[in-house]
Amino acid sequence: MSAAPAPVEQTTHARLIVSTHRSALLRVTLRYRADDPLAVRMVFPAEYALEAVGASDGPLGALPDPADDPFGEAAGADGVDGVEWVFARQLLASGLDLPSGEGDVHIRPASGRRTVVELRSPEGVALLQFDRAELRRFLWHSHLVVPEGQELRHLDCDRALAELLA
Predict the structure, then answer these.
(1) Contact indicator for 63, 57 with CB cutoff of 8 Å
(2) Across 11-15, 22-26, 83-87, 123-127, which has the greatest mean pLDDT?
(3) Which residues, 6+ apart, have CB-to-CB distance to 110 below 8 Å?
(4) Which residues pair with residue 12 across a beta bridge?
(5) Which residue among 49, 86, 98, 146 is the one 20 to 30 A from 77 at the CA level?
(6) Residue 128: pLDDT above 90?
């Protein structure tokens, strides 16, 4: 049996939009695994989690103190560094060209070479701007691991069902 392909991991920067006059640059890790071929993951620094932010200063709460390292990461109990959002790889791909998404994740092109990712939770809404070329590069690498349209060949339905029912 051949070894599973190495996961794709790319670190990029995003601008967290807090208000019309406030934003923060943060490091985001994009991840893709062949054993979960339909999903992509975005991992954000733990200090940007709503629970970690304290007083409300807009939809996300107050930003961390600029004196602190804005790019530091903290490992969570599940071994993930920071806060992880998981959504469909196809949603990311379609959102680069057209407004896409329902529910918690919406992705749309923005002016210039930007793409906006909107993450919604009961605690608030996060608006993030990414460089579109960086997201396209990540998708290109993920398609080298599992080509578009071949996801079901890599999907372990028994394992996925077991995880869903666990």
Answers:
(1) yes
(2) 11-15
(3) 116, 129
(4) 28
(5) 146
(6) yes
Greatest Cα-to-Cα distance within the chain, rounded to the nearest angstrom: 55
* Predicted local confidence at residue 124, as pLDDT: 84
Say if residues 153 and 34 touch (Cβ distance below 8 Å). Answer: no
Q: Is the pTM of this model over 0.90?
A: no
The first and second tokens of residue 141, run together, are: 């690498």
139 pLDDT higher than 90: yes
Mean predicted lDDT score pLDDT of the chain: 78
Burial tier of 117 (Cβ tally within 10 Å: 0-12, 13-18, 19+): buried
Regarding predicted confidence, which is higher, 115 or 67? Answer: 115
